[in-house]
Amino acid sequence: MNPLFLIPAVLVIAGVCFMIYMNKKHQSAKSEIDLDFERNKYDVYKQEVLAQDFPQIKQWMKGKSIDAYTSASVPQSTANKVQDVISDGIKNVALSAIGVKLRRIETECFWVLSGSDLHFFSTNTVGELDEHVVFDNFRIEEATLQYGGILKSQLGVYLKSSEEYLPKTHIITFNIDGTPLSLEVHDRLNYVPDPTDILNMNKQLITRVKYQVVGEKFVKILQDKFPNLQVA
Fold first, then answer.
1. Which residue, 134, 108, 101, is CA-closest to 122?
2. Higher confidence at residue 175 or residue 218?
3. Does residue 62 surpass a pLDDT of 50?
4. What is the 3-state secondary structure (H, E, C) of 108-156?
5. ∠ CA 78-84-88 to the nearest 5 degrees?
6. Dist CA 128 CA 109 (whole Å)
7. What pLDDT was estimated at residue 215?
8. Residue (of 12, 1, 8, 27) closest to 164 by Cα position
9. Which residues, other chains included, contact 13 with Cβ-Cβ below 8 Å and sequence gap of 6+?
10. Which of 105, 150, 104, 112 is nearest to 133 (CA)?
C-alpha cells in the first residue's frame, strides 16, 4: 500500500488526540477557577484590563471618568430598521439627533459609564474609533432595559459545549424624539485569543474570567445609578 494513503488517516487521528488533550487541559484549568472568588477582585481587574488590554478606551474618553465599561453591539433588528430608512431615502431625525450612523456593526463596540453619561463607541475594521455617541442622563432616565439572551449574531459559531463563553446581553432602548433606539449591552468584554496562547489554557481561562468579572458588573452599576433600568 502506498504510504501516502495513510496520511489523511494519521492526520485525523492526530486531530482527535489533540482535541482530547486540549479538552482535558481545559477541564483541569477550569476546575482551578472559583468565579465567585474572582468576582471579589472587580476593582483590581477593572483597572488592570483597562490599562493592559483596552487602553484605547481611556484615550477615547479624554480624561473623563470611567465608572464601568463593557462590550456592546447593534441588534440585527435595529440595523435592519435603519437600513430600511436609508434605502427609502427618508431622513431619520431621531438618529441624526444623536449623530450615529447605525448599521450592522460586526467590529468592536463598547459602553462606558462616566458619571451620568453613557458613551457608546464603535470601531472600524482596524480597531480605530469610528463612532462616539453620548447619551446623557435625560436620555437614560427615559430608557428601558430588558434581558436579551445570548448574543444572536454569534449563535452557531461555537460548539454547544462552549456556550458558557458566549456573551449574554441586555437590550437598552432609548426614546429618541419618539423613536425607539435599541443597543445591546454584553455581560463580558469580547475576548479574542492570542494565537501564541493557543496551548496556554490557564491564561485563556483567567483572561476570560477577568473580562467576565469586569463586564457583568456594568448593568448592576448602571441600575444602581438609574433605578428606571430595573428589569421586570
1. 108
2. 218
3. yes
4. CEEEEEECCEEEEEEECCCCCEEEEEEECHHHHHCCEEEEEEECHHHCC
5. 150
6. 11
7. 97
8. 27
9. none
10. 112
- As given in the structure block, the three cell numbers for residue 32 are 482551578
For the cut 50, the answer to whether the pLDDT of residue 96 exceeds it is no
Bigger pLDDT: 226 or 161? 226
pLDDT band (50, 70, 90) for residue 163: confident
